[in-house]
Amino acid sequence: MVCIAAACSAIGGCLALVSHDRPHYLDAGRRMLFAAGVASLASLLILVFLLCSHDYRIAYVRDYADRTMSIGYLVAAVWGGKGGSLLVWAGIQTWYTAAVALNRQWSQRNVLRFALGFLAAIQVFFLLLVLFHSNPFAPLGTIADQGIGMNPLLRNPYMAVHPPTLFLGFAGFSVPLAFAFGAFADGKTDGVWLAELRGWILFAWVFLSIGNLLGMLWAYEELGWGGYWGWDPVENASFMPWLTGTALVHSALAQKRTGGFGVWNFALIVVTFALIIFGTFLTRSGIIESVHAFAGSTTGPHLLGFIIVILVLGGGLMVLRLSSVRRTDSLQSWYSKEAIVLVTNWAFVLATIGVWLGTMAPFFSDLLKGEKLTLTPEAFNRGMVPLGLLIFGLIGLCTAYNWRSTPFERGIRFSRLPLIVGLIAAAAAALVNGLGSEGGLTGGLAPILSFALIGVISAMVIKRSIPLLKRSADQRRNTRLTYQKLGAQLVHLSVVLLFVGFTGAAFTKEHRRAMNPGEAIRVDDVRVEFLGLRTDADFERQAVYADLNVSTGSADPVVLSPARFIYHTHPRQPTSEVVIRTSLTRDLFLILGEPDLRFGRAVVRLVVNPLVVWIWLGGLVMVIGVMVAFPQSGWLERWREAYLRHRQKVGWIGFIGVAVTIAVIGIATTRDLPMAIIALLVISVVGLVLFLSSAVHELLLRKGPA
User: Fold this and answer.
1) 3 state DSSP class of 310
2) Is the pTM value of this prediction over 0.85?
3) Other beta carbons less than 10 A from residue 607's beta carbon
4) Cα of 308 vs its chain's centroid, Å
5) 3-state class of 537 per DSSP?
6) What are the backbone dihedrals phi and psi of residue 111, each rounded to the nearest 5 degrees, phi first?
7) pLDDT digits (tens, 9 = 90+) for 136-189
């Protein structure tokens, strides 16, 4: 099926590229790309079936599935290894291409055919990597009695959804890349193509954001070190494209409103996708050490070559069209929103360069001096905290100013009340943190500046949102633009909430101690008494629990039990099962270190993390904000028009789809999941045949316009 997907992708891309004066070729190419998406789905279903049926004749199944794993984790094992994860990415890539081909509302036909050709080339690259370098269907050569099973660290609900969410963001940015290359190749530098892609960019960005947040949640709960971000190289690998992608979201809006930023947007699109491939290169090349990295992968050189191709092609197209793009990139006034977006872009780029240099420091130091120099989280924070505060402040300025030009006095007048709120917040933070705190900008001053900006920007967002809420309630003034602006303010509010949580890290306190039963440790008003150790075992793992009597202030004591799990299939990889007590003001984080069962002693670590929950609330508000803005992008109206044109056909397809879904759910609920997968696989094969036959029909029998 992977071979079929690659062949359909190559043929579909070629048909799209040569369809300039043959419109029916474009329709045939579209159907071949649909077939590629269906074939990719079938290949994923086959892998799910092999994992769920424990077919240990396949090396990937032996390595990532065992009979102690639940159905959910067996499905998650599809992306738990290097071969399966690459197959998932390739599959998602084919589905994005099929979605682009399905949308017939693109206004520039030539740009579309070039874009489909580029998208097809990208997915052929990934599918060939799967076939020749990371094949999850490779036979083991013998029949194993039992499987090794997925890494215990990955057996976490957040990690079960974190990789596919990231892949939705990663592959999503290929769409603007393909259209950017297509537009510049066709000489269309007027930005019309970018305006039509705003929804696609936002969709990819929000999934990349959610993927990063889910990764933070996983690290917080599973790694047992007491934090949610450690500047690990692979964390940085997904953070860098988020930085440039966020700059692109704002810069694309600036081009839509003012006609400028053409050079910026093209460069940001190319760099964002190049950084996405670079992150994959880091995890699969072996040049860095990380708990996230895949060992023994051979795809690194190919990914590096792909990055070079992207950058060279992007640079060549930029040089070719630079003169025509720069004519529209003039800045009318520094007292305007686009001027602040420009400064924000530079700040995002500077932050990206800083993270990239810090991430690659071990490689460069080993290359130059023969020893690997790894930067500590504190070293990253010294550079990134000031830059983060600068970007956060620029968000507030964006809220205060309008597009093209805003009188200076008007901006000051709008900011007067928010500045007062910010001063009050700064004074409150100074009283809590102490004006004499050591640490400079990244120590004592950083929380004060952060809370000041939180106060200012919160007030600005609320001040901007009130008239938008009134306008949305008035049906006469309720427009698509109103919802887009309201959604943008909610996203800005989510950034405020995120910074509330990030600022809490400045007040983190902890105590670590080897304890005997009856001994206690204390942090502020939290007292933890060690009651003793107990053990437990089942068919999946052995466990050692530390019973702790935890009292906070005047609240009644409660017994909490962090643990260490040792899975039978991975005896040398014990995991820390932490206990977290969450409130709006702080998290109590309890970790069991190395237990000594012989003497009943244990190392217990108590961490008090203030305001962490506000990070997760900020992520939720971000999703809500995008949901408010996204349905107003015009997609729903276009889909409704398509439904009205093909009502009868859509009705029958919908009826069949609902019937098939009910049948598959019925099969799955009988606990015969492999049979349900087989049913879906049969449906996928039927769809593949239908798309291939319709493509042949277009090529041989139809000569009319597409």
Assistant:
1) helix
2) yes
3) 22
4) 23
5) strand
6) -60, -40
7) 988 887 777 788 888 888 888 888 889 999 999 999 999 999 999 998 888 887
